[in-house]
Amino acid sequence: MYRIMIIDDEEILRNGIRNFINWEELHCEVCAVAENGLDAMRQFSALTPDIVITDIKMPGMDGLEFARKVNQTAPQTKIIILSGYADFIYAQQAIDCGVVDFVIKNNPAPKIHAAVRKAVSMIEQERKDSRLLCELEERASSCYYDLCVEFFKGVIQNRFPSPEEVEQRAAQLGINLSRFMLAILKLPQADNINASLAHGASILEFCRTTFQAFQPILFSMNNQFVCMVLTPDDGKANQDIYALKSTCEKAVDTLRELTGSHVSIGVSSLNNKASSLPVAYQSAFFALQNSGAHTSGSGVFFTEAHIQGTSPNRMISQAIQFIHEHFKEELSLRRIAKELHINASYLSRLFKKSMQENMISYITHFRVERAKEMLVQTNDKLSQVALECGFQDVSYFSNIFKKYSGYSPSEYKNKFS
Question: Considering only CA atoms, which of 19, 116, 21, 7 is closest in space to residue 64?
Fold first, then answer.
């Protein structure tokens, strides 16, 4: 029902409009009557009527002044002006005040009926337009989020030919990754977790709510891993890590209680550009696998750079970054040591001590994990997968893959794709 306010200094006319018009037929109800503009203003803010029918000439505050004030504070309210023939000269001023119709007092009932219908039609159209605008905004927001997700996946899967193109595309999308971390949530079986969450909430919805303070962009690389690109507010890195560790631990504890299954999260170090997404992804993945990672004690794993109370091992971080960026090429301990301007024997001991495995094993492990992704997510031939992951010989690749994963490449693709 639309609410009507009637304003007129003549009681007979006020009561006549109130009582002798079939408001129910117009889907309206009279919510207030007033004898002048001042009286109406006192009631207006509490009632906010949809339609006002007001006389043009009244003591205290006339209809035009009232219309101007309402047009400024509640422009959605429709105003219908009542006047005599002599007052028709005020019609132009009334239009400037946002008045929707001008009714002559001579036999006003049918004219008011028609004017109210017009006002109701305008209100309905405006509400319809408002709903449509909200829907369009929601769709635009959803589309933008989907574009961001596809961009992140594309960068992680090395679909862009160069880091420069990655940064250019990020700028076009308005994505700022000057400070971000990437977290990977490992699930035992995503379907079981989804079924266990209260009210049918999905795992993505759970993560979006839990990590809200970090403005997460979430997506699944497969049915076991959920990726979260987290962009904390500006502040000290240590505070970011402390807050994130606490949030991760709460998320893991909650999911374990809900599902009765083991759940864990791996987190990359802080990064400062979009083209670092592949490095961040692999760092989080290996932290998750606890390959040289350090646990916070509750299924949350952080890379070396996050160890609280110690400084990051820059040399090892640089070595890992070089491996992640050049894993398709022929890599050796000597080449990496030369790149970092360090003795190869010293680098080998340092890497083994920090990562708890030797460098060649780490490189191979990294390549196998990248091959797993390609096998599941692409239809590339086995020879192409091997080449893209740094293996020149397909037979050698197949043997190494089975040694590290327990499956042949074809078995893995059939089981997990």
Answer: 7
